[in-house]
Amino acid sequence: MKKHILWLVGYLLIISCTDGQQSGYAWELWYDSPAQEWMQALPVGNGRLGAMVYGGTTQETIALNEITLWSGEPDPNQEISFGKEKLAEIRQLFFDGKIKEGNEQASKYLVGAPHTFGSHLPFGDLTLNFRHEAPPSGYKRTLDLQNAVATINYTVGDVLFTREVFCSNPQQVLVIHLKADKKKAISLTAAMNMLREEAEIIVSDRGFLLNGTVSYPKFGKGGVAFASEILFQTKGGSITTDGQSLQITEADEVTVLIDINTNLKLPDPAQISADHIAATTLKDYKTLKKEHTHDFSRLFSRVDLSLGTSQSDSPTDKRLARLKEGVEDPDLAALFMQYGRYLLISCSREDSPLPANLQGLWNDNLACSMAWTCDYHLDINTQQNYWAANTGNLPECNTPLFGFMDYLAKAGSKTAQNVYGSPGWVAHTVVNVWGYTAPGSGIGWGLHPTGGVWLASHLWEHYLYTGNTEYLQTTAYPILKEAARFISDYLTVNPNNGYLMTGPSTSPENAFLFEGRAYAASMMPTCDLVLIRNLFTACIECGRLLNQDKSFCDFLQQNLDRLPPLQIGKSDRLQEWFEDYEEASPNHRHTSHLLALYPFNQISTERTPELAKAAARTIERKLSLQDWEDVEWSRANSINYYARLKESEKAWESVKMLLTDMTRENMLTISVKGIAGAPWDIFIFDGNEAGAAGIMEMLLQSQEGYIELLPALPAEWHTGSFKGLCVRGGAEVDAEWKDGIIQKATLRATTDNVFRIKLPADKGRFRITKNNKELLAETHQGITSVELKKEESLRIILIP
Q1: Which CATH number fits domain 29-70+119-300: 2.70.98.50, 1.20.1600.10, 3.40.30.10, 1.25.40.850?
Q2: pTM confidence score
Q3: What gap in Å lies between CA 449 and CA 416, rounded to an integer?
């Protein structure tokens, strides 16, 4: 098999943060007062089980979550059977210019009928009410990102109280540990406030046993059965119960062990919970914490980042407030990036039963009350959840997403056949854990037949970073191929121009004006074109790498050649639809046609400068509108867009706006009150992850066939360093810079490959070494090519 060449760019002046250890910076969020609401609490999680920790002194609230806690049930009648013949009739209406009639027919037949869709839901709150004899002082609440431990410290009288909370992946339990520096100091009352109606709670002097069935009829009948065990262990003191709550009196230490399971994928959740708790009791607290911190930090510590002088001596919420007042704090962006990695590790592990949903695995009991539910949206949100995984050196965190795709591909084959009469698989705007892959109930937001294609793009991107051909053969290519089979059959020839086109389809959630009226559906919106180009190109390359399916790949290439081009409209902006329609709502937050710029690479400042200018004008127009519907994910998009356009200061302004206007005190990003029908600020996970990805994109890019260091470095980040970020082709990169100029950099190959490095001629001379030996590398048009075997390294140092 030929080597897949990685091309690296620009300032790849590679160095190294030497021994691969963390810089010594304390990666933590900290506060000098307890949380008063959910959006101030601190998240912990193990990829399945999670909690929000409030850190109260009089009352501690631990808001509990489990990622499979869903309402709803499978729905065999989710779609309207339609088929090729009727689809062809609707398409002809569009080709004949009958946009009104085509949209009417699509609204009648190309919609889903979700009867039991359901939603992810929160479990309930464990409350610990403490009996203190005086007001507390010296309060501090922290979240240690590297070790994933939430800690609360305060003093009452002359007693120091310490509380630690973490969610262990090795043990699959949530652990709460209470201690004081004097004996008999801990007295409390514990109770459970269940948020699900159908729950039985048994209280004993050991703790709580909870069993029930989720009931949340807002989105249809049905729900998983759940079981939970909460065990209290004490050193000293006594435990009693009144049948409703549990009282601990004069204990020296208290350890609480919690597990929740459901029958979504398990035959006996009560037994699984009991087994997890029983196994955990065989280890003391010190061992549990040591195993947990080792497990988590081995992932988190792969990456380090410094963007300037740290202001970590101030509480995190006060730093955010100062940034909003105009006080520069570049290292707060570094903290936000690392927080994104922390959150992804916390809710998406190799053994997670489901991928991160709209709220990761946490749930504020608000998103699930919205019409859009707490589910999986495939018109950008679920994809954004994983944008930071590959560059952020967390490829394992993709695993549950790929498992979910395999499930969707099986479910979506029925929808492909029933709705479109096509082979392969399809998924639209929204999906759930019950196999819903039909269009949404309205075409304006729900008719997005390339939603599954978009999600599947992560399969190919993962390969580009890892070079794992076994994964490509067994996991990625089968799903990609079946998506391509659907699209190939679904495409139709436009008799007016000969192009292959999708449709009727929408540019997600946007509408255009035609003869003075707004319509959603058309033939071949730009986002479909971008996604299909990426899919076919990936499948053709898979076939080449795996040496199989040549005839199928040749067929895809023929189809690829018959797709229309990206177009610049009369306004000099990138067209969102094949026809140069005017937007019905120019202020709408969705910009799906800009997928060509990011995360894909079909628009480039170097290869397609005119399209890049058109994309820039599109972005500028959106952001200049006074009523622009800016939310967490759209602002995170702007960071990535501007990074690709090499507009460093505009990217930094978008980082700051995300942090100041769309991030709450606990640094979780929000869909802002008043937009998309939200009556409150609602936590949405995608802003944290896409924002973190954008910060990485400002520092390192590899999509152009070369790696570029500091492609969008703002003036405020003039001096700094990073360690362990990853590039396509299979390598980790470290870099240090001063006054905006790379001082040294290191590339460590994680696969065998040929790396091409462009060294900036105007930044001085560099010494290049391979495996610590001086290297005279071949250079062509300013690009230096170096072949590395796995674990070999390349270093470039600026010569003073």
Answers
A1: 2.70.98.50
A2: 0.96
A3: 9
